[in-house]
Structures are given as structure tokens and as C-alpha cells.
Amino acid sequence: MTVEQPDLPSEVEWPEQTKRWWKALPSTPGADQWTESDWEYLMTTALVHAAVWGNGDFTLLGELRTREAAYRITPAARKTAIKTEDEQQEAHKTTPLDMIAQRRTEMQSGKKTQRRARA
């Protein structure tokens, strides 16, 4: 079940960069499918974002990038995801040789069944 984006908690003093980042999240492709647990994860990600942008804790940049990539928030993450999906589709393409081999297997299975039926 998808849910609407919650507000950032008012108890936290959010940096302007984090407020803008949070406001932009619903425009992320796929955000319309995010569930309550997704938004909870992203709320924690907002805390990491705030630590980086508000407190200058750049040791958390790797964590922030990893979390953003998990939800394809950045253009680089979306590009990688698209490339991966394209590679998967390419790997699953059926060639004419595959179709011949499959037909041969089906025919051999059918012949064995027919032979057994005659015996």
C-alpha cells in the first residue's frame, strides 16, 4: 500500500538543503509506489542528509549515497538501474538457436511419450 509523504518532524532543526531535498523526493521516479516503511527509511536518510549538510559531517557521505542509491534518488543511481535492467533484458533475449533447441527438446519429449503409449 502506497502512502503520501509524511512531514519532517518538527522536533528537529532541519537544514534548508535537507528541507529542499525532502520536498523533491516525491518527484523521484517510483516514489508513487513507496510504502510507509520506505518513508521511514527515507526519514532516517533525512537525518543522515541533515548531518552532512547541516553539521558538515562529511564522514557520512558514503552512507548518504548508499541510501539515496537504494531508492534511485540520484541521476547516477537511476542511470545504473536502467543499465542493469537493460542488461537483464539483453541476457534474456531468445535467439533462433535457442528456439530450435527448445523445439527439439519438446519434440523429443513428445516422441518418448508416444513410444511409451504404443508399448
Tally of helical segments: 5
Report the count of strand segments.
Answer: 0
Strand content: under 5%
Q: How far is the first residue's CA from the last residue's CA?
A: 57 Å
List low-pLDDT spans. Answer: none
Q: What helical percentage do the residues reach?
A: 55-70%
Radius of gyration, CA atoms, in whole angstroms: 25 Å
Mean pLDDT level: 83
Largest sheet: none
Question: Structural class of the secondary structure composition?
Answer: mainly alpha
Explain this structure to me?
The protein is mainly alpha-helical and 119 residues long. The protein has a domain at 1-73. The chain is 66% helix and 0% strand. The protein has five helices and no strands. Helix 2 (36-55) packs antiparallel against helix 3. The mean pLDDT is 83.
How does the SSE layout of this entry go?
Blueprint: H1 16-24, H2 36-55, H3 61-70, H4 75-91, H5 96-118
Helix pairs in contact: 1-2, 2-3
Write a concise keyword list for the protein shown above:
119 residues; mainly alpha; 5 helices; 66% helix
Overview in brief:
With 119 residues, this protein is mostly helical.
